[in-house]
Amino acid sequence: MQEPKSAKIIFRTDNELKQEAQNAFADMGLTLSQGLNLYLKEVVATGKIPFQVQTPAARLKAEAEEAEKLAAQGKLKTYTPSEYFAHARQIEKEAQHPHE
């Protein structure tokens, strides 16, 4: 059986992202090329991007909804604005004077 011909894809990204991706794939025992090929194969197999694409506003909305759900279940402490700022001031005070 003959190997499929290899094609070259060229796209631009910043150097830092490329290095971080290479490191992440290396941690998984893959080269950057192998990792990107796995991504492309997943897109072809499923017909969709293998993660949710959201605008920052949509992501924040989803996170807020999740937080509200957890709070309603009693799994998350909620604060009023005045409680939050009092708590933040206390943490800041403790950080400035840790042994008082």
TrEMBL record:
Family named by the database record: Belongs to the RelB/DinJ antitoxin family.
Positions of transmembrane segments: none
Any Pfam family: RelB
Superkingdom field: Bacteria
Name the record gives this protein: Type II toxin-antitoxin system RelB/DinJ family antitoxin
InterPro entries: Arc_rbn_hlx_hlx, RelB/DinJ
Keywords, ordered alphabetically: Toxin-antitoxin system
Signal peptide: none
PANTHER family: ANTITOXIN DINJ-RELATED (PTHR38781)
